[in-house]
Amino acid sequence: MDIPLHSQLRKKLRKWLYIIFSLVKRTTPTDNYIDKKEIKQILIVRPNYRIGNIIFLTPLINELEKHIPDVTIDIIVGMKLAGQILEPMPNVRSVIDIPRKLLLHPLKLLELIKKTRKEHYDLIFNVSSGSVSSEIVTALSKARYKASFENDKSLIHFTHTVENENRYKHFASRPLELLKLFGERLPVNNVPLDIKLTSQERESAKTALQNIIQENNIPNEHKIVALFRNARFDKKISDEWWNSWHKELLNKDTKITVIDILSPDILVKLNKDMLEYSTHNLRLLGAFFAECDLYVSADTGPLHLASASDAKVLALFNNTDPNTYGILEAKSKNIEVNGLSTDDVAKICQNMLVN
């Protein structure tokens, strides 16, 4: 079989990058533990542009705070709004966003190199083992130690590599295995997402919800459900399905009000019987989800934002694995909707609202 041209080019690019990075700095991997007392500044490299994957960094960030309370954390990601979500978290100093397909933006790459090389980190965690962009950033950043998961196809040499033993089913908990470098006992179970909302953020969200309720004369006894309809590709559920679900839900209990969450991709609410809400502040949006009695959506970024905000969540999965990407909190529920009717899902919602 002929190898596609783009695959040939990518293979050659990796080869030349490997040679270049080998000349820049060659390090020898070691199995030695890292003394936590030496670590004051950490850089986490995860150049991804999806909200969910950015929020999936929170277990690692929060566990680092537990193990090294005084550590300062910088994070390199591929999403412009990531700083809004992560910078207010304890110990996070700054979040740097880089463009997608980094090699196609040489000026941005030079700017990034200049910015990151001003810092002398004690440790870099390259979370995305095998990612070319991630390894470029790791190679060009200064640090005493550079660590990642073992990968035969890595372009660069790390001072420390960790075998991924697949201890955790949930995708967000998998980077926690990097903590083995400190010789620490790892969490036994998956660690929930948590963006560490402040009391002020929760109070602002409470006020926003109360304003919607008052402006629309919603009785106090109504249960409030937040709905987000968008999702990527085949994870998305059709508007026809959501309309049918909404009808079945109100047939079961008229004392339920659904708020349709609008976004740049969803500009108009689903139907006239729903209310609407939108905000550009993602932490406020997460707090708003937590103020509602229930949040419902397919597997998408706002779903994980709701989870990380301690909202009560009903997560609908159709093409992804809930064991890998689902909600971990006991008060929430993951269901696979293939084979279920809108009436079935409405019953589950109703049950969650009364329990």
Task: Give keywords.
single chain, 355 residues, alpha/beta, Rossmann fold, 6-stranded parallel β-sheet, 18% strand
- CATH topology of the largest domain, anyone? Rossmann fold
Q: How many domains would you count in the coordinates?
A: 2
Provide the gyration radius in Å: 22 Å
Low-confidence stretches: none
In terms of DSSP E residues, the strand content is: 15-25%
Task: Determine the mean pLDDT.
Answer: 89
Envelope shape: elongated
Q: Which architecture of the largest domain per CATH?
A: 3-Layer(aba) Sandwich
Number of strands: 12
Q: Class of the largest domain in CATH? A: Alpha Beta
Major sheet description = 6 strands, parallel
Task: Encode the helix/strand succession as letters.
Answer: HEHHEHEHEHEEHEHEEHEHEHEH
Number of helices: 12
Q: Based on helices, strands and strand pairing, what is the structural class?
A: alpha/beta
In short:
The chain contains twelve helices and twelve strands.
Q: Could you characterize the architecture of this molecule?
A:
With 355 residues, the protein is an alpha/beta fold. It folds into two domains: 14-182, 3-Layer(aba) Sandwich (Rossmann fold); 199-354, Rossmann fold (3-Layer(aba) Sandwich), CATH 3.40.50. The protein is built from twelve helices and twelve strands. The strands form two sheets. A six-stranded parallel β-sheet has the order 3-2-1-4-5-6. A six-stranded parallel β-sheet has the order 9-8-7-10-11-12, with helices on both faces. The longest helix has 20 residues, at 5-24. The radius of gyration is 22 Å and the shape is elongated.
